[in-house]
């Protein structure tokens, strides 16, 4: 049980930040963070040590969040215009994107293709290295690096898709 405690202490904040970056909903991010660790405990043999534990947990978290968002989307559609009350000042997004307002930045990020959007969120909010981003998304480190660079260029140019 002490291994689990250590794993939770070392990774819970990263998993939460990743999930929060995807949804901007603190309660949902906390709920799915807890589900992530529950699933990891339920299926301990699924982690084979091929990637960092944080990468494995973010993979679980991302899959759980997709399922939860799909379930909620079927129940209740919320337009992005209602999701623009974003917390925090001096965030990684602000530093990375300069003069863009947070609202405009997130509108542009939201317009990106799903995998590209996840790369941006993982890099900026999760502060993960490209090797882990690639592993989470089932791609290579080079793919993650190039995808992030291209997304950044699109965001700075004002495009999304």
Structure write-up:
- The longest helix is centred in the middle third of the chain and has 23 residues.
- This protein has 8 helices and no strands.
- The chain is 71% helix and 0% strand.
- About 9% of the residues have low confidence.
- It is globular and about 45 Å long.
- Helix 2 packs across helix 3 and helix 6 packs across helix 8.
- It is mostly helical.
In N-to-C order, the SSE pattern is: HHHHHHHH
Computed structural class: mainly alpha
Total helical elements: 8
Number of strands: 0
What proportion strand? under 5%
Q: Uncertain runs with pLDDT below 50, 5 residues or more?
A: 77-91
Report Rg.
Answer: 16 Å
* Biggest sheet statistics: none
Fraction in helix: over 70%
Overall mean pLDDT stands at 78
Distance between the termini: 46 Å
Overall spatial form: globular
Name its key features.
single chain, 161 residues, mainly alpha, globular
Brief summary:
The protein has eight helices and no strands. The protein is mainly α and 161 residues long.
Q: What order do the helices and strands come in, and which of them pair?
A:
Layout: H1 2-23, H2 26-42, H3 53-75, H4 92-97, H5 102-111, H6 114-124, H7 130-137, H8 141-157
Helix pairs in contact: 1-2, 1-3, 2-3, 3-7, 6-7, 6-8, 7-8
């Amino acid at each position: 049980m002490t291994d689990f405690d250590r794993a939770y202490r070392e990774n819970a904040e990263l998993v939460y930040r990743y999930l929060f970056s995807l949804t901007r909903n603190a309660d949902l991010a906390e709920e799915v963070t807890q589900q992530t660790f529950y699933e990891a405990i339920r299926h301990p043999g699924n982690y084979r040590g091929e990637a960092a534990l944080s990468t494995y947990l973010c993979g679980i978290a991302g899959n759980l969040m997709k399922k939860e968002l799909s379930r909620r989307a079927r129940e209740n559609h919320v337009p992005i215009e209602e999701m623009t009350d974003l917390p925090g000042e001096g965030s990684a997004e602000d530093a990375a994107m300069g003069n863009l307002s947070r609202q405009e930045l997130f509108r542009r990020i939201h317009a990106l293709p799903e995998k590209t959007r996840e790369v941006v969120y993982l890099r900026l909010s999760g502060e993960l290295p490209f090797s882990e981003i690639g592993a989470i998304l089932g791609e290579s480190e080079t793919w993650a690096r190039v995808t992030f660079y291209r997304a950044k260029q699109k965001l700075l140019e004002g495009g999304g898709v």
